[in-house]
Design brief:
2 domains, alpha+beta, globular, 12 strands, three-stranded antiparallel β-sheet
Length: 267
């Protein structure tokens, strides 16, 4: 079927282009190997072939508990991945990591599984096949600082603070706050805006890792994750669970404080 580009575009903008006309246009290479939504159609390019499907203009969204949980989990995972992927150095190490995923964002999504609407200590900000391991990197202390315990002079420290479980359920399920510093610094301070964000939430997860870059060589550490509660009344945390592997540290005599009732902060 003969169709000019001008005529095809005119019919497209009027949503009158047919599949045959669109297929002819794609065969000529005018639009390239495009994918996605184009007017009333969904386009895919698979194994050298253009696949054209009708676009669904209406569908009934399931409101079942499982469906809502699935949507919330995907939204949380995508938000977490996008936040980390926006940092050039974190994006680079996830791009270099030898793991499943077409790019850094998909790798972050695939290897950070979220059950619910907020990240947990099982998540990671660095690829799990790391180059070196460090422990007890940092912790949240008082109401405005992150204390760095394990300092490495030739790297960059990343600390990602994730306040979650909002006091007002209309607020976002969680927020992300990024800190970077040379790894030999002793502490990182939260500014007023960051403290105000934290006051809106009951709990937090703190992720930390170190990245070393020497010329073309780049290495990264494991991710340490700590979890705790903010004191809603006084504006700062009042308990920390510093380590991801609880049983391992119990076996070495490390004493963990029990989680209290979230609804009843101490006096």
């Amino acid at each position: 079927m003969a169709i000019t580009l001008e005529k095809a575009l005119e019919r497209y903008y009027l949503h009158k282009i047919t599949k045959e006309e669109l297929r002819c246009l794609l065969a000529k290479g005018v639009l390239g190997n495009i994918t996605g939504i184009l007017g009333p159609y969904v386009l895919r390019y698979h194994k050298g072939q253009h696949i054209i499907s009708n676009r669904p203009f209406y569908f009934r969204m399931s409101m079942s508990e499982a469906a809502i949980l699935g949507r919330n989990s995907f939204a949380a995972r995508a938000k977490f991945a996008a936040f980390l992927n926006a940092d050039p150095l974190l994006k680079l190490i996830w791009t270099l990591a030898d793991m499943e995923g077409r790019n850094s964002w998909t790798k972050l999504c695939k290897h950070n599984h979220i059950n619910g609407s907020a990240p947990a200590t099982q998540n990671t900000i660095t690829p799990k096949e790391h180059h070196f391991e460090i422990k007890q990197i940092c912790s949240l202390e008082e109401n405005n600082l992150i204390r760095i315990h394990n300092r490495i002079s030739d790297g960059i420290l990343y600390a990602i603070l994730v306040p979650f479980d909002p006091v007002d359920k209309n607020d976002n399920p969680f927020e992300l706050i990024k800190f970077t510093a040379s790894a030999d610094e002793a502490e990182l301070h939260l500014n007023n805006d960051q403290q105000n964000i934290c006051k809106k939430y009951k709990k937090y997860v703190l992720y930390s890792a170190v990245i070393k870059q020497n010329g073309d060589t780049i290495e990264w550490s494991n991710t340490e994750a700590s979890e705790g509660l903010f004191d809603i009344k006084n504006g700062f945390y009042w308990i920390i669970i510093p380590f991801r592997n609880v049983e391992r540290y119990r076996s070495t005599g490390f004493s963990l404080l029990p989680f209290p009732n979230f609804a009843s902060p101490p006096e």
